[in-house]
From TrEMBL:
<keyword id="KW-0004">4Fe-4S</keyword>
<dbReference type="InterPro" id="IPR037225">
    <property type="entry name" value="Nuo51_FMN-bd_sf"/>
</dbReference>
<feature type="domain" description="4Fe-4S ferredoxin-type">
    <location>
        <begin position="571"/>
        <end position="595"/>
    </location>
</feature>
<dbReference type="InterPro" id="IPR017900">
    <property type="entry name" value="4Fe4S_Fe_S_CS"/>
</dbReference>
<keyword id="KW-0479">Metal-binding</keyword>
<dbReference type="GO" id="GO:0046872">
    <property type="term" value="F:metal ion binding"/>
</dbReference>
<dbReference type="GO" id="GO:0010181">
    <property type="term" value="F:FMN binding"/>
</dbReference>
<feature type="domain" description="4Fe-4S ferredoxin-type">
    <location>
        <begin position="538"/>
        <end position="569"/>
    </location>
</feature>
<keyword id="KW-0408">Iron</keyword>
<dbReference type="InterPro" id="IPR001949">
    <property type="entry name" value="NADH-UbQ_OxRdtase_51kDa_CS"/>
</dbReference>
<dbReference type="InterPro" id="IPR019554">
    <property type="entry name" value="Soluble_ligand-bd"/>
</dbReference>
<comment type="similarity">
    <text>Belongs to the complex I 51 kDa subunit family.</text>
</comment>
<dbReference type="Pfam" id="PF10589">
    <property type="entry name" value="NADH_4Fe-4S"/>
</dbReference>
<dbReference type="InterPro" id="IPR019575">
    <property type="entry name" value="Nuop51_4Fe4S-bd"/>
</dbReference>
<dbReference type="InterPro" id="IPR036249">
    <property type="entry name" value="Thioredoxin-like_sf"/>
</dbReference>
<dbReference type="InterPro" id="IPR017896">
    <property type="entry name" value="4Fe4S_Fe-S-bd"/>
</dbReference>
<dbReference type="GO" id="GO:0051539">
    <property type="term" value="F:4 iron, 4 sulfur cluster binding"/>
</dbReference>
Length: 595
């Protein structure tokens, strides 16, 4: 029995910051101080506050050490773990007060969160099944197999109001009900862990921090619909998640929680992994199943829907990682518990990957109905450098921009659709006043063009034509007729594309046109980018009243575009200027500006 536990984040974010070296150094220093029998080191999943990695928490005190360096470890071990004196200067600033140290759940980042899908992330060692069982893991599977009929399980999910967290928000219980109603010798349960949205890392973090929750939920799903085989489709770019899934599957089989006759109930269920090559289109359910079958990942026309003919033409259900992560707790705590959170039509919580122009980059889980303002200003710590919030993109390339005028709209499935965006899988990119919305639309469309499978003409050709028009706009070469053509193409793609990739590809364009049309017009008519982002429409100039003639800008310029004598105002030759901005970054007097 250890008197102290040191939890170190082993998620991808902190691992990239060197948390594995922190763990090695910790274990070495703990041994050197003779504390190996008293202090245990635990590698966990993501704590959520990724901006402060590597993260380390010491229990029972709950001391939150942020941005830990290897050279800090000897002091933490000698002072805190040996002598019991917390090293205050290394703690997360917000936890330190003059008279006390705040617990983590009282900080702004955590106090409005309600962790359901993320409940074990940052709490347990994801590579140890006994720690998962110690938090109530596999209790739900035991209840289902020994006390419930398949139809009872489906009714629990229907009563809970759980909707798919992959983006579309389809009722999970209804999807299971459709699959259960179709008779077949073999049925399948699939998990979408492909997660292709730029800036999204919700599913990855759950798999890295709590893989058994997904395995348990898939087994419950198998029992509910009459399936004996499950597949997790996970992208190969998630090596830590893949490794921990492999460990978890092996452990579950060893404990008899996967395989034959689980809990002596006569129910057989097993799970295999299938690695994806990173194709965004394989997030679409039929394309994902086609890829699992060993074919090129392209969508199939629907109907028939997967509940009737899915994987290998058999009845199949597909849910994403976050959806599954909620299910064991719904079984144990009851559907009323889950339905008590959120809004009337969007029950429970939602995990968001918070990124972009935000102070607290990381993973947050909030009750449905929380406003965007609360997420950005309170949980996210606001926009850096005193800049103003301009918009937030939800749903990635399939979603849309939420402008400042909708800052106080409660976030749920229906509200986001009403304002021209969508929930998506949970990426939330914050943009400030320096963001060009035309450029943002172009960025997401470039991604969609690259990721289109090319099977249907509207998506294959239409997205390229749209991108060409956006490129013309950002270069100041477009006309108002081009803008009309852009909107026409958007509507054509929405109604004629084969799958959701093409149907939702116009969303970033349509939402920016809806709320920021004046920026499009400025690019087209005035040949100016109001945000100063589009290079072809920029000019760098020097304010003669502020220029001291220090020559630093001239010495920095890679194109020799700046002329002037020492201690005299300088000038920029627009014909030579590369518009790289290096001079502006180096100027100490704020004399260089762009317009």
């Amino acid at each position: 029995m250890y008197r102290s536990h040191v939890l170190v984040c082993g998620g991808t974010g902190c691992t990239s910051s060197g948390s594995h070296r922190i763990i090695e150094k910790l274990e070495k220093e703990i041994a050197a101080q003779g504390l190996s029998e008293e202090v245990g080191v635990v590698q966990t999943g993501c704590f959520g506050l990724c901006a402060l990695g590597p993260i380390m928490i010491v229990y029972p005190e709950g001391s939150f050490y942020a941005m830990v360096k290897e050279e800090d470890i000897p002091e933490i071990v000698a002072e805190h773990l040996l002598k019991g004196r917390v090293v205050t200067r290394l703690l997360y600033d917000e936890t330190t007060k003059t008279d006390k140290i705040l617990p983590l759940n009282e900080t702004n980042f955590y106090k409005k969160q309600h962790r359901v899908a993320l409940r074990n992330c940052g709490v347990i060692n994801p590579e140890n099944i006994e720690e998962y069982i110690g938090t109530g893991g596999y209790e739900a599977l035991g209840i289902v197999l020994t006390e419930k009929k398949p139809e009872d399980v489906i009714q629990i999910l229907l009563d809970s109001g759980l909707r798919g967290r992959g983006g579309a928000g389809f009722p999970t219980g209804l999807k299971w009900k459709f699959a259960a109603a179709n008779d077949a010798e073999q049925k399948y349960v699939c998990c979408n862990a492909d997660e292709g949205d730029p800036g999204a890392f919700m599913d990855r973090s759950i798999l890295e921090g709590d893989p058994h929750a997904v395995l348990e939920a898939m087994a419950i799903a198998g029992y509910a619909i009459g399936a004996s085989q499950g597949y997790i489709y996970v992208r190969a770019e998630y090596p830590i998640a893949v490794k921990r899934l492999e460990i978890a599957i092996g452990q579950a089989r060893e404990y008899g929680l996967l395989g034959k006759d689980i809990f002596g109930s006569g129910f057989d269920f097993d799970i295999e992994l299938r690695l994806g090559a990173g194709a965004f289109v394989c997030g679409e359910e039929t394309a994902l199943m086609t890829s699992i079958e060993g074919n090129r990942g392209e969508p199939r026309p629907r109907p028939p829907f997967p509940a009737l003919k899915g994987l290998f033409q058999r009845p199949t259900i597909l849910n994403n990682v976050e959806t599954y992560a909620n299910i064991p707790q719904i079984i144990v705590k009851g559907p009323e518990w889950f339905a008590s959170m959120g809004t009337e039509k969007s029950k429970g919580t939602k995990v968001f990957a918070l990124g972009g122009k935000i102070n607290n980059t990381g993973l947050v889980e909030i009750p449905m109905g929380t406003t965007l303002r609360e997420i950005v200003e309170e949980i996210g710590g606001g926009v850096p450098n005193g800049k103003k919030f301009k918009a937030a993109q939800t749903g990635g390339p399939s979603g849309g921009c939420i402008p400042a005028e909708h800052f106080d709209v409660p976030i749920d499935y229906d509200n986001l659709i009403a304002i021209g965006s969508m929930m998506g899988s949970g990426g939330l990119i914050v943009m400030d006043e320096d963001t060009c919305m035309v450029d943002i639309a172009k960025f997401f469309l470039e991604f969609t063009v690259d990721e289109s499978c090319g099977k249907c003409t509207p998506c294959r050709i239409g997205t390229r034509r749209m991108l060409e028009i956006l490129d013309k706009i950002t270069k100041g070469q477009a006309t108002m007729e081009d803008l009309d053509k852009l909107e026409e193409l958007c509507e054509h793609l929405k109604t004629n594309s084969l799958c959701a990739l093409g149907q939702t590809a116009p969303n970033p364009v349509l939402s920016t046109l809806r709320y920021f049309r004046d920026e499009y017009i400025a690019h087209i008519v005035d040949k100016k980018c109001p945000a100063g982002v589009c290079k072809d429409l920029l000019q760098y100039k020097i304010d003669a009243d502020k220029c001291k003639g220090c020559t630093l800008c001239a010495r920095t310029c890679p194109a020799d575009a700046i002329i002037g004598k020492v201690k005299e105002p300088h000038m920029i030759n627009p014909e030579k200027c590369l518009k790289c901005g290096a001079c502006m970054e180096k100027c100490r007097f704020g004399a260089i500006y762009k317009e």
